[in-house]
Amino acid sequence: EVQLVQSGAEVKKPGESLKISCQVSGFTFTSYWIAWVRQMPGKGLEWMGIIYPGDSDSRYSPSFQGQVTMSVDTSISTAYLHWSSLKASDTAIYYCARPATTYRPYYYMDVWGKGTTVTVSS
Amino acid sequence: DIQMTQSPSSLSASVGDRVTITCRANQGIVNYLAWYQQKPGKVPQVLIFGASTLQSGVPSRFSGSGSGTDFTLTISSLQPEDVATYYCQNYNTAPLSFGGGTKVEIK
User: Fold this and answer.
1) How far apart are CA B64 and CA B20, in angstroms?
2) In A, which residues are within 8 Å of B3 by CB distance?
3) Using one digit for the tens of pLDDT, what is the confidence trace for A13-44?
4) Beta carbons of A47 and B95 less than 8 Å apart
5) DSSP string over A67-84
């Protein structure tokens, strides 16, 4: 079964760092891009960027460039999203998702993780 | 960047009604348009891709149409389990972009 299993909810203070994870199973990790999508409380979906585990090629939405860092660990089939200094405005649900094709990064997403809730509050 | 505008932002309809949601791109995206359904507290799920192709397992009461800049999602006969927020998504050009969402409720 194709699955994206995300790490648990986090509560952090402004200025703290955080890395959340997305472990995949049921498909070849290094063949598919992995996207990250943000959903702020009560708001819509925002595409943050995408990373190719095969060579760590990363493409960021301009809105998120410099705000987060995507990375992977192919030895454990896991993708990460990292903040070096959180802000209250980073409070959101973060989903990892897999495009439905191996041929291009910009595609609709047919497999989603359950999301990681990040709360940033002093 | 491509902006996706959905309308209406919310609607209330009766069970059995035909429901139509529109999505407009500010530049042409061919047919690289997907529709997602997000039920309350749940993960988004793709309903339609390629503007009109139904994802496997999605009920046939859902349909999509359009190309270029104007797209439509139609629910032919609204069911209680269709209560959700629906999003369109451009996947023609990065950064990928979603519409603001349409919340569908039962009257």
Assistant:
1) 10
2) none
3) 999 999 999 999 999 999 999 999 999 999 99
4) yes
5) TBEEEEEGGGTEEEEEES
